Amino acid sequence: MKTAALVAAGATPAFAQDGDREGWPESFTVGTASQGGTYFAYGSGWANLVADELGLSGGGEVTGGPMQNMALVHTGDAAFGMTTMGPAAESLAGENPIAPGLEMTNACAIFPMYQTPFSVTALSSSGIESISDIPDGARIGFGPAGSTSDTYFPRMMDTLGVNYERRNGGWSDLGGQLQDGLLDVIAFAAGVPVPAVSQLEVQTDVNIIEFTEEEQAQLLEEFPVSEFEISADTYSTLEEGARSVSMWNFAIADCSLPDSFVNAVVDVVMSDNERMVNIHRAAESTIPENWDKNQVLPWHPGAAAWFEENAGADISDDMIYSSDS
């Protein structure tokens, strides 16, 4: 079993010596999700930050979201990606719809991102102010096919007794369809503020619909989610916090990437939270002490070393990736 001792010193963004960069790629991509969603803004931002700090070519890539990112990173088609704990667990178990039966064990956790709240948005003119107001046969946009929204929100609506017509698409496109009256509701699972919702607020009046206490309790019992409140200052529409549920997101890496490279990437992202918050406000949760929110994915040894040295993390050996296991 590899241990964190493989990377004895915390990396710094100043890995300038050629010897320190043995095996490093000259370029990299980060699998994100559709434009208009939080993943794309957040992922493109940290990709560009890492590229600038480490003197490499890198950037975000539009994808179908967490499920596809697990597949891209597992196969090595993307060096990095971002995923949510639910889709990550399903992928490890061979239940990813992109490749049923394939256990995606070559995708390693590298740092905590933020919680993804599940929230519902409708136009104020629709009169929909609660989940129970959603009419039978409502056209609901659940995000890109295979995304966290598309994987879990339809199941949640089923649990809450909502009868709907399922629609998929990128967040920007779905926001436009909602505004044009082609959709009745959008069910978002994305870090807040969701860019598409913020854009809608500027252009029209919207209702951001919270779950009742009873609805929240039902979802907590049925799904791998936690309690969450969307704070009132997230959107201009909100006058008080909105009750929700959430799922943690983690950045992932191809487990075969050099330990020193991943260590340096993690150091760039985790050592200066202000830079990350400037990329997206959801990064307020991208802090070292949230390392323990990963109970699903094996850690990349280079990332485990960083958190053990800099965050006092106590990561068990069986949670650190080894090519021998």
Automatic annotation (TrEMBL):
This is TAXI family TRAP transporter solute-binding subunit. It comes from Histidinibacterium aquaticum. InterPro entries: TRAP_TAXI (IPR011852).
